[in-house]
Design brief:
The protein has 3 domains: 265 residues, Alpha-Beta Complex (Spore Coat Polysaccharide Biosynthesis Protein SpsA, Chain A), CATH 3.90.550; 136 residues, Rossmann fold, CATH 3.40.50; 169 residues, Glycogen Phosphorylase B (Rossmann fold, 3-Layer(aba) Sandwich). The chain starts with 14 loop residues before the first helix and ends with a helix. Helix 15 links the parallel strand 19 and strand 20. Strands 3, 4, 5, 6, 7, 8, 9, 12, 13 and 14 form a 10-stranded mixed sheet that branches. The protein is built from 25 helices and 26 strands. By secondary structure, the chain is of the alpha/beta class.
């Protein structure tokens, strides 16, 4: 069951039931945590547990800063004026403030009460982790509170409430509720895997809004809380090594720290009863660093990668977040993407493959979707198809063992692959069916081709563990991009084409009228058809031309029948229904076409169609077809020759059909070849 925002959460329907629940909770606490009190929560059936405060150990409040005097002065003043917890000291860590007013303020602050307020110098590059670690070493307190300089206390008992939880047995870290200046939520816990390695749920929501199951209103355990206001004992801080100042200088250091503490068996508690103001990332937003934006982005990407590599299980499955809830929204929305919803457990011995096809009508279908279906059918793998990119956090949530990318060289695609590279337990495969870096101007995809396609394609391939291609010439053309290249030819899937070929030439009745000559293919073959446009025109009085899929405008007047827009799943049936005497397969001779596969011969051959094709590399070999030079006379003579010898043409078509059926179907060992290319 999932409760939408239009369905109020109801835990109790009567005050009697609420009181009864309170009694049960009080009895439990009397045994588990004596001295704790039970207070009513924000709605019937919810409660706040107020733990006892058996002692008041010294708390060292650590505040890193650089300049930003208005924030810092407000923070210090609120601590001193509003905090009723009596036993705390303040350590301000100055990361080389430059403005005269900030330096003057810090110099004066150090003289106010040296026994309680200290200013520590921490010059050098901005490193949030190092500043906190340096201060904790000099902290006198038994407990340490990490606090951002852009926060401010809003209530007197905030630290007292946090200390009540910190002193509970088994609690390692305590976090507070933080609000933006406009009253919206800035922090109500951290969810692993949300919009990246980790993120705050319900950002900006009204502070009084109930939220999903009142999760922004009641105290609970999380996997992590923000270090903008984080309370921990100094012993625990030092036990796990503090914040990682080497690999996580700025981002995610608090999440990493919480996960390290959680790994020791201690709980991470968040309480909404302790509320502070927080501007939110003021140090990073206001450019107090001299580092340029490009360098900051690069650092952020590196630190994200550290998290993906270090905590993949936590990012994939946060125990404090239901797996049926989305990781792409604000938090707590239901997940509708079937790729990410909780499914059956992985099958031992079968890798789970997540494929990202470049399209669903061409190579994406016959090189990713169909091979995956065949492997699933053979029970050697499980898997799913994603029609869009997927960030690393979602890949982890999908539980994929293998990722297969195709045409992933856009900016977004390269970013997704760069993130995926950090996933050490996941194999990354790049699939190429064409030499996409050499698309011709006559190809319909030319206008969509990206500038620097060659460099982008090489970068995408380099981010993967292996390159899988359809032909040996394509492997040779891309040899410099990867050291591990596997050639897996295109084949016909029985799931698409059937288990047995059609008996077209055997069962066909005699037909009157002109011979029927056909071509079938996609818009990418515009240049190939333009090459034989004169052939089509000059034979129009002798044959009926039939085109399926695409037909250039200049050829259309000479074509008797044209079947446009045939859906991919209908393509085999529609082609097998064609009653052609001859099929043509023209290909221009250039680098892009020389790397193509023989797929068109396979499709024509399954239909037992006699074929006239260009004498180019993809169609060479022991194929029972008529190959011609790309000259007008040769094309005309070959077509006329086949049409004049119906018995010979019929025999050729059947021979081609037998070859395709026996050698080129996606069954048996051929399925295992795909499996090995993706998983071994």
């Amino acid at each position: 069951m999932h409760l939408t925002s239009g369905q109020p959460t109801v835990f109790c329907t009567t005050s009697e039931a609420w009181q009864a629940l309170a009694g049960v909770l009080a009895e439990h606490l009397a045994q588990a945590e004596p001295g704790s009190e039970v207070a009513e929560g924000p709605a019937p059936g919810t409660f706040h547990v107020i733990p006892p405060l058996p002692r008041m150990p010294l708390v060292s409040i650590v505040i890193p800063t650089r300049d930003q005097l208005p924030f810092l002065s407000r923070c210090i003043e609120s601590l001193l004026e509003k905090t009723n917890y009596p036993n705390f000291e303040v350590l301000v860590v100055d990361n080389g403030s430059q403005t005269p007013e900030a330096r003057e303020f810090l110099a004066g602050l150090a003289q106010v009460d040296p026994a309680r307020i200290r200013v520590l110098a921490a010059p050098g590059a901005f490193n949030f982790s190092r500043m906190n670690n340096r201060a904790v070493k000099q902290a006198r307190g038994e407990y340490v509170l990490l606090l951002n300089n852009d926060t401010a206390a809003l209530q007197a008992d905030w630290l007292t409430l946090m200390m009540r939880h910190a002193l509970r047995p088994g609690v390692g870290i305590v976090g507070a509720r933080l609000l933006y200046p406009d009253g919206g939520l800035q922090h109500a816990g951290v969810v692993m895997g949300l919009r990246g390695p980790a993120e705050h749920p319900a950002l900006g929501a009204s502070a009084g809004q109930a939220g999903y199951l009142f999760r922004t209103q009641v105290q609970q355990n999380f996997s992590a809380v923000t270090a903008a206001c984080l309370l921990v004992s100094k012993a625990v801080y030092e036990e796990v090594g503090g914040l990682d100042e080497q690999a996580l200088a700025v981002s995610y250091n608090d999440v990493d720290f919480c996960l390290k503490v959680g790994a020791t068996g201690k709980r991470i508690v968040w309480t909404p009863l302790a509320t502070l103001l927080h501007e939110g990332s003021a140090s990073q937003k206001r450019s107090i660093e001299s580092l340029g934006q490009a360098d900051k982005r690069a650092r952020f990407t590196r630190e994200q990668g550290v998290m993906y590599e270090r905590w993949p299980d936590a990012i994939a499955h946060d125990p404090a977040y239901n797996p049926n809830l989305s990781l792409t929204g604000h938090g707590y929305e239901i997940e509708f993407n079937p790729l990410l919803r909780a499914g059956p457990p992985p099958v031992p011995g079968r890798p789970h493959c997540l494929v990202f096809p470049g399209d669903t009508s061409g190579c994406g279908h016959y090189r990713l979707i169909q091979p995956l279906d065949a492997m699933v059918g053979a029970q050697v793998a499980t898997g799913r198809v994603s029609l869009g990119g997927m960030r690393a956090n979602l890949v982890l949530a999908s539980e994929a063992d293998v990722l297969v990318f195709q045409r992933f060289f856009t900016d977004a695609g390269l970013q997704a692959m760069q993130e995926a590279k950090s996933l050490k337990g996941v194999r990354k495969i790049y699939d190429a069916d064409d030499l996409d870096s050499h698309i011709r101007i006559t190809n319909s995809s030319y206008r969509q081709a990206l500038k620097d396609a060659r460099g982008r394609m090489a970068k995408a391939i380099g981010l993967c563990d292996r390159l899988v291609v359809s032909t040996q010439p394509l492997a040779h053309a891309l040899a410099a991009t990867h050291e591990d290249i596997r050639v897996i030819p295109n084949r016909l899937s029985p799931g698409m084409w059937g288990d047995a070929p059609p008996r077209r030439l055997i069962d066909r009745p005699q037909r009157s009228g002109k011979p029927r000559v056909g071509w079938a293919g996609s818009a990418s073959h515009y240049g190939d058809l333009k090459m034989v446009a004169d052939v089509i025109r000059d034979l129009a009085d002798e044959v009926d031309w039939i085109f399926m899929g695409m037909c250039p405008d200049e050829i259309r007047p000479y074509v008797k029948e044209f079947y446009a827009g045939v859906p991919t799943l209908d393509w085999p049936e529609r082609l097998m229904a064609q009653d052609w005497d001859v099929a043509i397969a023209p290909l221009e001779s250039h680098a892009f076409n020389e790397c193509k596969s023989n797929l068109k011969l396979l499709e024509y051959g399954w239909c037992a169609m006699p074929v006239v094709c260009s004498d180019v590399l993809p169609y060479q070999g022991d194929w029972p077809v008529v190959r011609v030079k790309n000259r007008h006379r040769d094309w005309c003579d070959a077509i006329r020759g086949l049409l004049s010898d119906s018995a010979g043409a019929r025999a050729q078509g059947l021979a081609l059909q037998r070859k395709v059926q026996s050698e080129w179907m996606l069954v048996g060992e051929h399925v295992l070849q795909w499996h090995a290319a993706w998983t071994s």
